[in-house]
Amino acid sequence: MSPYPHDYAHLPPPDPPELPPGVRRGAPWPWWYGLAGFAAWAAAAAVIGGALYVLAAGVFDQSLDDPSPGLNVFGTVVQDGLLVATALGLAALVMPPRPWQFGLRATRFWPAVGWSALGYGCFFVFAIVYSVAIGSTEEQTTLDDLGAKDTTLSLLVVGVMVCVAAPVIEEFFFRGFLYTALRRRLPTIAAAVIVGVLFGSVHIPTGAEAAPVLAVLGLMLCLVYEKTGSIYPCIALHALQNGVAYSVGADAPEVGLPLAAAVVAGCVFVPRLGQARSTPPALA
Fold first, then answer.
1. How many folded domains does the chain comprise?
2. CA 70 to CA 145: how far, in whole Å?
3. Which domain holds residue 135?
4. What's the predicted TM-score (pTM) here?
5. Residues 37-81: pLDDT tens digits?
6. Rounded to an integer, what distance in angstroms lies between the CA atom of residue 184 and that of residue 173?
7. Is 201 inside any structural domain?
């Protein structure tokens, strides 16, 4: 019998095992997995999503040239689900996926705040300069396409999709999976530029003029991830950006700002709760 009140001899190591300070554990995927995943997602979204779109349009007797907001919400949910499924499916071919492989891990609070503020400040300056340089940017059609302003229920549902689901899912794929894979072979800037361009390109259908701004946002988020080692700060910044945009675009700050604040708070406390639970209790 152990002479101690608690016997830790058979406890498994933390997930992932602790590393020396300053050393980051990398995901075990090949570097090209990220690009393959993006291509697979685009193909699946076009084939599977398109087929389901046509089927749903036929069932509800709608025109594909001018789909209803409900059908657009359905299509968005399918595309987001395919993003997550693609990343997890490819990762599982190498080893069972773990949250830390996608950057879902705790990071030091104040350095994360500092890098996030610096990154978002640079993005904000670029967005202003870009807007002045081209005159007035074309408004994105996302909120109109999803029918955010149609009813109170749609305002809430679309708010959750834009301010909560989109930041979590897009950061999980673009920073946690795509950028993480590219960094196994490419330098920071090269990987960040590629991810930024791809991130901006997927938003072209809802407003081509906004794509360069979103590409820079995607690049900046990669650099924040690089400096903090966690996608939680990226999710928080993404939610903040979307929350402000939703509040202005839908004229609903009472929806967009609280949802964004909830995501930011979650990004602060959730990783610390997980970290605390993975730590064995102190010896009595």
1. 1
2. 9
3. 100-277
4. 0.88
5. 999 999 999 998 888 878 877 777 777 777 889 888 988 999 999
6. 16
7. yes
